[in-house]
Amino acid sequence: MGSDGSIILAFDLYGTLLSTESIAKELTNQFGAEKATTIAATWRKYQLEYTWRLNSMNQYLPFSTITQRSLHHAIAENNLELQSKTAASLMSAYDCLSTFPDVAPALQSLAKQSSITPVIFSNGTREMVSNSVNQSPDLSPYSGIFKNIVTVEEVQKFKPHPDVYYHLAVKVGKKREQMGDMWLISGNPFDIVGAKAAGMNSVWVDREAGGWADGLIEGEKGRPDLVVHGLVQLVEAIEAGTISTQSTRI
């Protein structure tokens, strides 16, 4: 994979293809609409925070464990109680997340592009990601488009640690000096900055059209190479030749 000169498109899963906000429907059934949105946002916040803290402490827990523990954190912060049956139901809902509205038409178009190699690249465990891709009613019809599912389990670190991006390169047949042949597609700014720091190209999916605000790294190294407001614009960029491999840009 990747040795034929095709463009590697590494799609983040949660927050890019799948909307974690869609789990609010299940939360609404359990806690009511007023609390559901807050719990969903808090759950996601701690889910990411836990990965960053583990990176800093040089420790690792499976993303499924992190997801469960961050759920309990979010529930406790909202002064609610969580029964075991409810927790299991909410975790199961992660296998059936909805896609963002622009995902399906974009994937339909990408399936016709012979110049690209799309892969999933996620913090999730292999089992968790495979379930999400293959069981999501929205995403499963397009699961065959993705040539590989790359997760962080083998390196036991999380985005934005550079080792996970180098691990991606190995999995798609690229060497360290070929990081520029890969494009990360993500709606998460921390992921974009991490990929850029590791030498990848990046496309930030800014669906809310709020503009880039992350100020951690100054200059072009701290910004995405391309900003799109939906994945259909990504397809347009590919067709226009805006997205290419490092070798074709030299």
What global shape is seen? globular
| Rg from alpha-carbon coordinates | 18 Å
Class by SSE composition: alpha/beta
Order of helices and strands: EEHHHHEHEHEHEHEEHH
For the largest sheet, list the strands in their spatial order.
5-4-1-6-7-8
How many strands, which pairing sense, and closed or not: the largest β-sheet? 6 strands, parallel
Q: What is the count of helical runs?
A: 10
For the terminal residues, how far apart are their CA atoms?
21 Å
Low-confidence stretches: none
Portion in beta strands: 5-15%
- What is the helix content? 40-55%
**How many beta strands in the DSSP annotation?**
8
Mean pLDDT: 93
Which key features would you list for this structure?
single chain; 250 residues; alpha/beta; six-stranded parallel beta sheet; two-stranded antiparallel ribbon; 10 helices; 8 strands
Topology:
Elements: E1 7-11, E2 18-19, H1 24-31, H2 33-56, H3 63-77, H4 84-93, E3 98-99, H5 103-110, E4 116-122, H6 126-135, E5 149-151, H7 162-171, E6 182-186, H8 189-197, E7 201-205, E8 226-228, H9 231-239, H10 246-249
Parallel strand pairs: 1-4, 1-6, 4-5, 6-7, 7-8
Antiparallel strand pairs: 2-3
Describe this structure in words.
With 250 residues, this protein is of the alpha/beta class. It is built from 10 helices and 8 strands. The chain has helices at residues 24-31, 33-56, 63-77, 84-93, 103-110, 126-135, 162-171, 189-197, 231-239, 246-249; strands at residues 7-11, 18-19, 98-99, 116-122, 149-151, 182-186, 201-205, 226-228. The radius of gyration is 18 Å and the shape is globular. The mean pLDDT is 93.
